[in-house]
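TICKET: design request
STATUS: open
ATTACHED STRUCTURE:
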């Protein structure tokens, strides 16, 4: 089931856009700066309003820019989106602006997502993970594991130590919580005079457990002028498509299990190989790598590497899916053909389809699997082996479609 169909309480979004961009060295607030033909703030609001499940979105704008904010959002967004949009006056700090947003959200809203105005590339999948995470756990934030090695540096630029990063995550937004939890955290912060740099720190301060859900490397924050160049380059890729083709064949031997598309098939022979020899998963994985221009499965998972001995090939497929996501692509659809004389595969095709769709994070209908014989001609026809072909189409509108 597509995850947006899962049930969650009525959800609203607050976008604190109170900053006037002093760090950017630009006279205009940075949320008004152009990114691929649209103001940053329009990209940000659109990412949420494209989801019909978002009932209300409040932008907390600087008092001096209220009218400008209203005008530009109404100029660039359709009426079906602006009717869920409110602009309110923000405060001096982010915290004040979010609080103003909380006061402006309609009473029916039970789940609140707070998102930085300057993260215009937030994608649908990240928003949905936050929405469903908050519905399930009460409070979550989008975050990504720290990638770079971290150094603690003392006086004179001397490294004091290398920080263990295995438990360190970089906080992003959305930060999401049940409305009553968010309101409680803000009321307590006010009472104690606590100022946090994000909403999670306010929730944490009152002992509310906050989990991380997977964010995205693309969900960058436009803080400096060069970030705008990176964001523009990422957006430029949007709407592009890539095609990929994969082919694989393995020999049928005694003493091995026959696994196709992650399904174990009842047969006296199995496919020979270093991994589980899932020829269908291999063809699909190769097609994805081909579309990305990233070589082939042998380059990424060499058959000389003992860690891949007898490995479940679906794990390799999921790793490639992850790479695809990091590059801003998602699978549009795949068409697969298994060339196999025996056994009969028809009873297993639906289960294969489900497995491959789950690994690629698409609905099963996006994966078509056909099985054919070669009428006893050639190596597949003689039952010496099984082959598989895959054609895929990747799309880069990962963000909002
Ligand atoms: Mg193979």
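STATUS: resolved
RESOLUTION: sequence designed for all positions
ATTACHED SEQUENCE:
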């Amino acid at each position: 089931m597509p995850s947006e169909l899962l049930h969650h309480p009525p959800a609203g979004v607050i976008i604190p856009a109170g900053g006037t961009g002093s760090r950017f060295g630009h006279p205009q607030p940075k949320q008004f700066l152009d990114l691929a033909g649209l103001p940053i703030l329009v990209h940000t609001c659109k990412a949420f309003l494209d989801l019909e499940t978002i009932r209300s979105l409040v932008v907390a704008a600087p008092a001096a820019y209220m009218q400008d904010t209203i005008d530009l959002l109404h100029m660039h967004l359709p009426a079906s989106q602006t009717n869920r949009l409110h602009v309110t006056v923000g405060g001096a700090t982010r915290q004040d602006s979010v609080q103003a947003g909380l006061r402006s959200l309609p009473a029916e809203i039970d789940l609140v997502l707070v998102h930085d105005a300057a993260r215009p590339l937030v994608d649908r999948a990240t928003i949905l993970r936050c929405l469903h995470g908050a519905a399930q756990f009460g409070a979550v934030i989008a975050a990504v594991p720290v990638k770079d090695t971290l150094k603690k540096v003392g006086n004179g630029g001397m490294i004091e130590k290398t920080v263990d990063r295995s438990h360190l995550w970089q906080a992003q937004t959305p930060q999401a919580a049940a409305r009553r939890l968010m309101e409680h955290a803000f009321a307590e912060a006010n009472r104690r005079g606590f100022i946090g740099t994000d909403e999670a720190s306010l929730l944490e301060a009152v002992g509310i457990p906050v989990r991380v859900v997977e964010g995205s490397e693309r969900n960058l924050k436009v803080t400096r002028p060069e970030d705008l160049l990176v964001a523009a380059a990422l957006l430029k890729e949007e709407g592009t498509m890539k095609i990929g083709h994969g082919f694989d064949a393995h020999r049928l031997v005694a003493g091995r299990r026959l696994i196709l598309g992650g399904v174990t098939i009842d047969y006296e022979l199995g496919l020979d190989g270093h991994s589980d020899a899932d020829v269908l998963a291999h063809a699909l994985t190769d097609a994805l790598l081909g579309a990305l221009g990233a070589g082939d499965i042998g380059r990424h998972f060499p058959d000389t590497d003992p860690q891949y001995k007898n490995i479940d090939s679906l794990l390799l497929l999921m790793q490639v899916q992850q790479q695809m996501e990091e590059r801003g692509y998602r699978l549009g659809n795949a068409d697969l053909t298994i060339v196999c004389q025996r056994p009969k595969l028809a009873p297993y095709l639906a289960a294969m389809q489900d497995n491959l769709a789950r690994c690629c994070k698409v609905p099963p209908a996006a994966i078509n699997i056909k099985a054919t014989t070669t009428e006893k001609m050639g190596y597949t026809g003689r039952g010496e082996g099984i082959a598989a072909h895959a054609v895929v189409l990747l799309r880069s509108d990962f963000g909002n479609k």
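CLOSING REMARK: The CA atoms of residues 251 and 385 lie 4 Å apart. The chain is about 35% helix and 25% strand.
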